[in-house]
Amino acid sequence: MLMPLDFLFRLLSTVITIVLLGGGAYILYQWHEGGLVSNLWLYLSIGLLSWSFLGFLPILLLRRRGRDEPKPMRSDRVQRLIRPDGSEIQVEFYGSELAPPLILTHGWGPDSTVWYYAKKQLTDQFRVIVWDLPGLGKSKKPRNKDYSLEKYARDLEAVLGLVDEPAILLGHSMGAMMLLTFCRLFPEQLQRKVAGLIVVDGTYTNPVKTAVLNKLLTALQKPLLEPLLHLAIVFSPLLWLMSWLSYFNGSTLITTEISGFTGRETRGQLNFSSLIGIKAPPGILAQGVLAMLEFDETATLKEISVPTLVVVGKSDIATRPFASQRISAEVPRAQLSVLSPGGHMALMERNQEFSEIVRAFSASCLKLKK
Question: Which of 4, 1, 344, 2 is nearest to 207 (CA)?
C-alpha cells in the first residue's frame, strides 16, 4: 500500500538500484580500460551486475513457502461503472447473490486482487464485492486527474448503489481513509444502506502525522516530500522502469517487508505484495499520495452512527496503532481489534484471523440490522 512512508522507501530502492547497476557498470568499464588492474575488480563488477538482475531470487528463497500462496484471482461476474469524470470502475462479485453484501476497498498502489484470501474465506457467508480504484487495476483513470479522497468516496457510493440491501463497508489503508470521507459526504447512507464499517490499518488525518518518524516526515513534507512527488509525476516512465529494476535486485522486496510485514509472511505473500505495488504508473501513485497529504477527517469520527470495527496490526509503521486507537475512542459505536503480530499487511500475513474477525463483526451488524 503506497503511503507517504512507502514512497520514501521506493526512493531508497531507486538509490540502491542506481548504486548497484551504475557502480557495477562503472567498475567494469574502468577494468576494461585498464584503470583497475586486478581481476578482483572484474569479479566485483560481475557480482554487482548479477545482483542487479537476480538479487530477488535469494531473498525469496530464504522465505518459507506457504500452503496457499496469493494469486491475482479475478471473477467472471463483472460490472463496469462509468463515472462523470470519465473514469470507469471495475466491480467484481464473489459468492451467492442472496448473501448479505460485503464491499471491500483496497488501499493505494495495489488493486482488488489484494483481497485474495478474503474472497476465498468469506464467500461462504457473504456476497463479497471488490472494486479497482480508478487509475489502478482494470479501472480507467479519471480524465480530469482528480485523485482526491472525495472523488473516491463518491465512487464508493456508486458501488454501494449496486446493492439493494444494507452492506458492510471495509477499507484498508487509504481505503479506510475513504470510508471516513464517505461518512462525511453521505451521512444519510449510514444505517439506511450501510450496516457497519470496518476500518483496517487506517488513519483519521494526514498519514505523515501518524506514520513512524512522524515528526521528521512532517518537517520534510513541504521542503522535500511534496517536491519529490511532483517530480515523480513528471518522470513517471523513468521511475516505472526503476521500480522494476528495484524488484529484480531485491530492494523492493526488502522495503515491502519492512513497511508491511513482520517477518512471518510467506514467500508468495512477500512476492505478491511487492509485484502488485509496482504495476501502476508512479505518476498516478504520486498524485494519490499528494491527495492524502490534504486528508483530515478528525471531526467526522464523532458523527459516525453505525457500528464500526477498527483493525490494526500491532507493528504497523505506515499507520501506527495510536491512529486506530483514536478512531475507536472517538467513533461512538466502535471497537478495536489489534492483530499481533501484524503489520500494515496483516490482512495477508494473518489472513485467517483477519477473516474471522471480519466475519464475526459483520454477522453481528447484520443481525442487529434485522
Answer: 4
Question: pLDDT digits over 181-217, tens only?
Answer: 999 999 999 989 999 999 999 999 999 999 999 999 9
CB atoms within 10 A of CB 169: 30
The stretch 328-353 carries a mean pLDDT of 97
**What cell was used for 223?**
521542503
Q: What does the block give as the cell for 344?
A: 500494515
What's the distance, CA 238 to chain centroid?
22
Report pLDDT digits (tens) over 296-306.
Answer: 999 999 999 99
Cell numbers at 265, concatenated:
509472511
- Helix/strand/coil for 105: strand
Closest CA to 196 of 16, 364, 7, 52: 364
pTM: 0.95
E-assigned strand segments in the chain: 78-82, 88-94, 101-105, 127-131, 167-172, 194-200, 308-313, 334-339
Q: In a 10 Å sphere around its CB, with 0-12 CB exposed, 13-18 middle and 19+ buried, how is residue 305 labelled? A: middle
Checking DSSP bridges between strand 127-131 and strand 88-94, what pairing results, if any?
A: antiparallel
Side-chain half-sphere of 76: how many Cα atoms within 13 Å? 0
Q: How many CA atoms lie within 13 A of 47 on its CB side?
A: 6
Q: Residue 368 has what pLDDT? A: 44
Coil vs helix vs strand at 150: helix
Cis peptide before 341 (omega within 30 of 0): yes
Could you write out the DSSP letters of every residue in 176-237? HHHHHHHHHH-GGGBTTTEEEEEEES--SB-GGGGSTTHHHHHHHIIIIIHHHHHHHHHTHH
Are 56 and 50 in contact, with CB atoms under 8 Å apart?
Answer: no
Residue that has been written with the C-alpha cell 525469496 in this structure = 60
pLDDT for the residue 2: 66
- Buried residues in 240-257 as b, exposed as e (16+ CB within 10 A): bebbebbbbbbbbbbbbb
Nearest to 217 by CA among 149, 321, 295, 293: 293
**Angstrom distance (rounded) from CA 178 to CA 152:** 7
